[in-house]
Structure formats: C-alpha cells, structure tokens
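Final report, closing paragraph on structural work. Over the funding period we assembled a curated collection of sequence-structure pairs, and we close with a single example.
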Amino acid sequence: MDKDIKQNKVLWKFPWGYPEGFFIAFILLIVGFGIEYFSGGKGIATLSWNVNAIIGILFINVLITVNYYFRESNIVKFLSGIPASISAISVFTFVVLLMGLTPQFDDQVGEFARKLGLSHITSSWQYLLIQTYFLITLGFVTLKKAIPFEWKNFGFILNHAGVWITIVTASLGTGDLKRLHLKLDETQAVWHAFDGENNSYKLPFAMKLLDFNIEEYNPKIALVDNYLGSIVVDDRVSAFTIEKGITQKLLDFEISIEEYLPLSATLGQEFRIFTEKGAAPSSFIKVKNIVSNDTISGWISCGNFAIKRRSLKISDKYSLYMLSPVAKKYSSEIALYYHEFSETDTTNISDTILIEVNKPFKFGGWKMYQQSYDEYLGRWAETSVIEIVRDPWLPLVYFGIFLMIAGAIYIFWTGQKISLKEDKNES
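Its predicted structure, as stored:
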C-alpha cells in the first residue's frame, strides 16, 4: 500500500522529495547561468570587512530564527531532510567539478564560456546561488540534530558545523585576502606592494634587500645532437651531474671529468678560478670514443650573462653541453621597517629578517614568502621578489577544519567504544 502511495505522489505536494529537491537545485543553477550571461559574465563583487562579517552574522541569525519559529513547517522540514541535502550536495559538487575542468582565467576560455561564468566560477552567480542552497540545507540539518541536544549526535554536529563554518568563512573572506608582491633591491626601501593586476597597496611596513644568497646544485652534462639540437637519451640517461674524478658512459663515449670549477672566468682558451660578479661554472673534460679509441679534451661552460657558453664538439654528430645549474636553495636577508622613517633616511632598521624558500616569515598578520629572483643574473642577482599574504579569515577556516576532524574522531571513538561494549556482552 505504501508503495502505491509513493507511486501516485503528486509533485509539489508535501512532503517534498528528491524530484522537488533536484528541481530547485537545477533551477538555481540555470538562473545563475542566466544572470551571468546577461550581465556579460561580470560575476559578483567580492565583499570585504566589515560588510562580509555583517552578512555572515545575519545569515546565522536568520537560520537560527527560522529554525526556532518554523521548525515544524513543511519547508523547514524539507530543507533539513535528506532529499534537499542530497540534491544540494550533488549540484554543488557538479559546479565544483566544472571549476576543475575549466581554466579559471578569462583570457584562457572562449567568449561564450566567459559570459557563462565558467572562467571565474567561485565568483559567479551560479556558484553563489547553489552554495547558498547547500549552506541553508546544511545549516538546518545541523540545527535539527543540535536542538534538542543529545550526546549521541555530538560527533555529527561537530562534523557538519565544521563543514558549514569552513565553506562560509572561506567564501566571505575572499574579499579580505591580499596576495601581493614586492620587488626588492639594495638601493631603497619599498613600502608599496602590487597585486596580480598591478594595483598598488601601501603597507604598514617597509622592506629593503640587504643581501640575496643562492645555493646551486652542480650543473649537468648532456650529449646533444648537432643536427637536431636535442639532448640524446642513452639507456634512460639524458644528463649526469658534474663531479671531479667521475667517468660516465653515453652511447659510444666515455666522458671523464678532469676538473670542475664552480666559479670561474675565461683566460684565453682556458678557465681559471674567479669569484667576482659574472663568474660561471666550468669543467675540463676528456672524451674517449670506445669504438675508434680516439680521444678529445677541452673546457666547457654553461656560461651566463657575462660569459659565453662553451660546448665541446666530440664528433660530427654530437657535442657535449653543460646545462645551467639548478637552484638548491635561495634566501633574502631583508631590513624590515615598521616604525616611522624618512623616505631618504632608512638607516633606522626596526628588524633584520631572513626569508627562505618554503620558510615564510610571519609579521603583523602577514606571511612573507621568497617567491623568485632575477634568473637572468642567477647567483649574482641583485633583486628579490617577495610575496606577502594576508588572510584574516584563515583562523576561522582552520577552526572549521578542526571541528570536522574532531567530529570524525569522536564518531570513530564512540563507534569503537560501542563495538567493544557489544563484544564484552557477547562473551
């Protein structure tokens, strides 16, 4: 009999189920695409402090108020039920997948895709509408389990509240996220940074480069085809690292490293140790042709902005090249000014800091990262690019993630506890 009732259920007659849930979700998606297209794909403006905080607080208050006064209404029961939750999660996941499949840059997609908001999904109307639907259902589901409170629902509440907080704070905090970069040198302090669109921002501190340091791996030697200009691969070996005294076989050639100078300069046809600006790695090598027993030797160098690259032709078909060394680690010693100072007199340094790759420095709510340097000058670079990031909403995002993890651990722990109790009763 129940089966017949389900089969004869009329759409949009309470209680609503999956058809109504997915219909609402897809209508929101279509409306979002429509607004995007007819507005020229401009998306929605990001909100910054304190408008975003007000909207977040209002959203929470509306959910709590509606749940308190209309908990037994058919709409709230639907929004806090499984059909609404599944439909919201499914369509929201679909939109997120679109973001992963479409380049998120306006200049990398066609005009039609840009107008639909596919190149900026997180700031598109369809994302906003379907995310709001998802957050409403998630909020009501969490409140349904939280009021009245029972300990058996504690893990569920933590987990779902964590997801809600993480998504809301990550979305609302977008407008307050600042990702800027500064190009520093040793001539002057810099107190303005720039974003990706080259907009200038005045900082509450200034920075000046004191010294840039770089450590490099030894360069590699590669066998190059003279006609094709490509590196030759022999038994999966395309190049090997230079070390004095080693011998390496490539094709029919035995290559011996007789000398290696990390810093050197040319002196006639030879290289000599030189440690001043413009020095480059060089190596004296001997090459033996295993088939003909012929030998050839000479200096090679990867060169740089001051020294011309030098290769060694070992046959009509092949030459040996030294590849440019790869940076192992680089860092910037920086003067940090966070007190009042004159633009012409910056001798009163407030602090001296060191920023290394993958070791950011934290100061005043900012994270400072070593981003890049002048690769043309390499180890002799006189400029350093520092990326600074400020995300005041990040602690709330971490708090939401913490709640999710705590909820999962609690559910696992209580489940383990129940199973042990059941095992004991059975014995």
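The chain is about 35% helix and 30% strand. The mean pLDDT is 89. We thank the funder for supporting this effort.
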